[in-house]
């Protein structure tokens, strides 16, 4: 089979596993009385990302070929995800937080390293075929987002958005990819002295970049903007679904199929990747990052103003804006780090960027967002009317939008960078 097709299948499954639960898990937690713990289930992804990918990378570098490490992680992670679903099924409407969270955490701990491992496997396979990874990989990677969208829609269509069944779908796909990964081209291991240490893998050497004012400011703002990354993944589905409690919106498509609506965000993400080279060349990293920051303002603000009825266009626009908010920040920031750092610490600098954004930033953001949502929504009396609940959600989204606006204004004032049209 053509290597590109094989890697497309790998990427499709890689992100289909994630898409099965990432945007709908919040609704399940609300259904089983764990609404106040939504942030912990999302924050744990950032916490394990601080060390698990590095540890898995060291094992893959030294002892176990990356394709086998990828398969092992997916197999073990898939088993724990199946166990999460099985426990949810057995516990019914009253699962214990500790058991559900523990099983889920173990699954995520093995899944998060596969994001980097799958890239390593793909790069190795393409290089073995003599292909240019810069040109060949992006079209392959797009099928990962397509896989994410497909399982989102399947979970929606099957009525599993608020069910433990979403974990079964994710776990089964994990087992399938765990087996399939062992059929992929073998990756080399380094048994000599030229191997990354734990310090290198964790990106700790790159902390020396904080001595440079420009890079220190960039990494600090990366963390501050990273706060926004997981908020809608955790709370958008419960928010949109809560409109079903209002008779006016109970029968609307959006209120009953939140995942289908949210999937437009991933569609936008796929398309916006193609815009990044043009925007970077034309406007430079500072303006592109500012575009991302103010896109987050719109993302949250439109959620606060919209509804699944006459205001559904605002939800749709929020989904479209997400592609700009997410891609212009993550991918452009990564390219900036690659350009501005010395080759000797370039990998470590990328690790530091991930720690500041998807590690510290996203973890702090989801926990802080949970506190806000608890105050305005989940601490309301059980008999509170649907209109009052939505009003509480509106306050939350406007607070998140205000935060992103403040970060954007401060970044514009503090971060100094003179763009040259040929920089990137």
Describe the structure.
The protein is mostly helical and 424 residues long. It folds into 2 domains: 1-185, Growth Hormone, Chain: A; 198-424, MFS general substrate transporter like domains (Growth Hormone, Chain: A). 74% of the residues lie in helices and 0% in strands. The chain has 17 helices and no strands. It has helices at 3-19, 25-31, 38-49, 52-62, 66-91, 97-128, 133-157, 165-180, 198-201, 213-226, 231-241, 253-256, 258-272, 276-305, 312-340, 346-378, 386-414. Helix 4 (52-62) runs antiparallel to helix 5 and helix 4 packs across helix 6. The protein is globular and about 60 Å long. The mean pLDDT is 86.
Which descriptors apply to this entry?
single chain, 424 residues, mainly alpha, Growth Hormone, Chain: A, 2 domains, 17 helices, 74% helix
What's this entry about, in short?
The protein has 424 residues and is mainly α. It has 17 helices and no strands. The chain has helices spanning 3-19, 25-31, 38-49, 52-62, 66-91, 97-128, 133-157, 165-180, 198-201, 213-226, 231-241, 253-256, 258-272, 276-305, 312-340, 346-378, 386-414.
Give the helix/strand layout.
Elements lengths: L2 H17 L5 H7 L6 H12 L2 H11 L3 H26 L5 H32 L4 H25 L7 H16 L17 H4 L11 H14 L4 H11 L11 H4 L1 H15 L3 H30 L6 H29 L5 H33 L7 H29 L10
Helix pairs in contact: 1-6, 1-7, 1-8, 2-11, 3-6, 3-16, 4-5, 4-6, 5-6, 5-8, 7-13, 10-16, 10-17, 13-15, 14-15, 14-17, 15-16, 16-17
